[in-house]
Amino acid sequence: MTTQAEWTILMFLNAKNNLEPFAFPNFEQIASIGSTNEVQFAVEFGRPKGHYTNDFGAWTKTLRFHVTKGMKPVEASAAEDLGTTDMGDAKTLIDFVTWGRKKFPSKRTMLIIWNHGQGWRRPTDNAKPVAAPSAVRYVSNDEDTGNQLYNRAIQDELAKLLKGDKLDVIAFDACLMAMVETAYALRDVSKVLVGSQEVEPGNGWDYTSWLEPLVKAKGDVDAAALGKLLVKGMEATYGDNDDTTLSATDLGRAADLGKAISRFADVATKQLSPATIDAFKQARNSVSNYAPGYNLHSIDLGHFMDQIAKSTVDQHVGAAAGEVQIALRAAMIQNYASKSRQGKFGSQGLSIYFPKTAAAHAGDYDGEAYAKGASVPYPVEFVEKEKWAAFLDAYWKLVP
User: Fold this and answer.
1) DSSP character for 179?
2) Where do the domains of the chain lie?
3) Is the pLDDT of residue 342 over 80?
4) According to the model, what pLDDT value does residue 91 have?
């Protein structure tokens, strides 16, 4: 490429796990449209040693593709053959982003990370992922190496690469990534975050639903507009037929949202007492956990604040909850939730970590990372810098 496109879309397609069969339909959706002068699409595609499908030659390696119309994901079509890579290593991701930006220069860049996911986690002490339900609690699991990508590693490595610049969109075709913790982590490396609050269906996104209008517009859309296209595409694909969500968040507003949450945490923590705890508990218990049955603990931030604002808790707490609601609405570019993920789920666009009880937190495989000053690799920046964790700690002391 010698001319600058409007958009370069980089897809880190880690199929080195049990999602391998779902990778090929997504690739073919992209190829049904293909790259144009205005919109370039590049894919880093890894497959596992122990195949879950033998489609397209059953190659076992990582290949890079410049996706053109009608292309098939076979070795002969690859732009580069990387051999064996660790797609659970952030450096592999950064190598791909570096290559894609240099090879396909454009006015705007989108990075898609495709795989299993969860909004935040601590790493395991050993390299091997654990059995379900915790098996969904990461992004980009490489089954061959046992490694996964952690938000802090993605955040830190992208910051080193971009040196103050930002991607236009970072998007996760993965489960449970639309969390305050994720948005806060990526606020300095991208303008827009796209992700789901809920577990995604195995088929994930329909790429034609947003690529077609993007290409039709000759790529003349900004980051927020592309985020809207993705969310509307998800809604058009699934409607009310599944337990689905997708949202686009303005990461330029993530710091303000974090500050509003900290102000709420300050006010609420001061009001927590045996006399007030029932009102707080009622508000928390009125909001359903995402991924029911998986022992996970993310809930909709906006819906919880709605319940607090309606509760009998002190008026200052209600006012602080209102400030969080305002900051959340300001950050939300576009949001979709099927009917089954409205109601007690709320699904206003971003989730937050909130186990119902101290026992639930103690029994959470990843709960160790959600404590102020936790000594863990890849610490969660939101936990480090904001005050939500202090509020949770005070809450759990009264709700064993």
Assistant:
1) B
2) 5-253, 254-398
3) yes
4) 96
